[in-house]
Amino acid sequence: MASIPELIVRLKRQDRWFAVLGLACTLVGLVTLLILLAGLIRDGHHRLFDPAFYASFPSARAARAGILSPLVGSILLAFVTILLAVPLGVAAGVYLEEYAPRNIWTTLIEINIANLAGVPSIIFGLLALGALIYGLHLDRSLLVGGITLALLILPIVIVTTREALRAIPQGIREAAYALGATKWQVVRHHLIPYSLGGIATGTIIAMSRALGESAPLMTIGALTFITFLPPPPIRSQPPFVNFQWLNSEFTAMPIQMFNWISRPQAEFSALAATAGVVLILMTLSLNAVAIILRYRLRKRIKW
Fold first, then answer.
1. What range defines the domain where residue 197 resides?
2. What number of helices (H) and strands (E) belong to the chain?
């Protein structure tokens, strides 16, 4: 039987090996991402800093093609998705964690939400196609695309909200109840402010996934080639707000990349590589925003 000093040495050795293994796994993912990003930059760097690439519509001529309509489409899709998914997901997460009774029905709901977070994205596209387009006879528009992506990330937002609420010490709830606060006052003034960092981080990471999805959008009929922009949401005449853009046809960055990469000309493959770099930079920017928001919110709560 090993002595206590020998046991401590063996456990420390296991800790070092585990740290080395974790570092190696991290480096594998990081190096793979850097290699892919370097390959995309190598193939598409000649248009990456060209203003005309961002201000031009897609074209049958590679020299004149740009990403204006897919870029605007992705931004508008993200806007609709956030407006739909975040309030509903946060409210559902708060209810399940703080209000819902612990019974078999709640357990079944929680299991299904956890399973939906791992369902392939094309299933949500088929759901939107059958329920929204064939069932409710809605147009293949930005609104339907936003609803589809909102359904895709909704389970992630719910799970993230619940995990952020669970991270709050139970003593905060008990102290508020001891002072006479109602459950809603505890949720509004304590739980939601303290969990905003985790909720924002999970939501932005979920949006990063939604930005790169093409299968559900193609399933509901997003266009692969479009040379116009939706109507502006703001206009100069009363009532100043225009909702017609929600019914506009659309495309998105992943769909435009698929269109270009499917063509045999090398010039279009280079354009797809440039668009891929832009999409990766958009995703990394969202992740950076999540990190900054989490840091500032935690710092504000600390002080």
1. 50-302
2. 12, 0
- Encoded amino acid at 56, one letter: S
CA 233, 280, 50: angle at the middle one, nearest 5? Answer: 75
Candidates 204, 207, 168; CA nearest to 298 is 168
Which tokens go with 227? 């040379």
| Per-residue pLDDT reduced to its tens digit, 55-113 | 888 888 888 888 998 999 898 998 899 999 999 999 999 999 888 888 888 888 888 88
DSSP state of 88: H
The closest of 75, 88, 134, 144 to 282, measured between CA atoms, is 75
d(CA 108, CA 123) in angstroms, rounded, equals 20
Where b means 16+ CB within 10 Å and e means fewer, 31-67 reads eeeeeeeeebeebbeebbeeeebeebbbeeebeebbb
Predicted structure pTM score: 0.85
Distance CA 59, CA 67 (A): 10
DSSP 3-state helix, strand, coil percentages of the chain (rounded to 5)?
A: 75, 0, 25
Q: Which two tokens stand for residue 80?
A: 């609709």
- Count of domains in the chain? 1
Could you tell me if residue 4 is inside a domain? no
Instruction: Give the domain CATH number at 263.
Output: 1.10.3720.10
Among 261, 257, 249, 246, CA closest to 214:
257
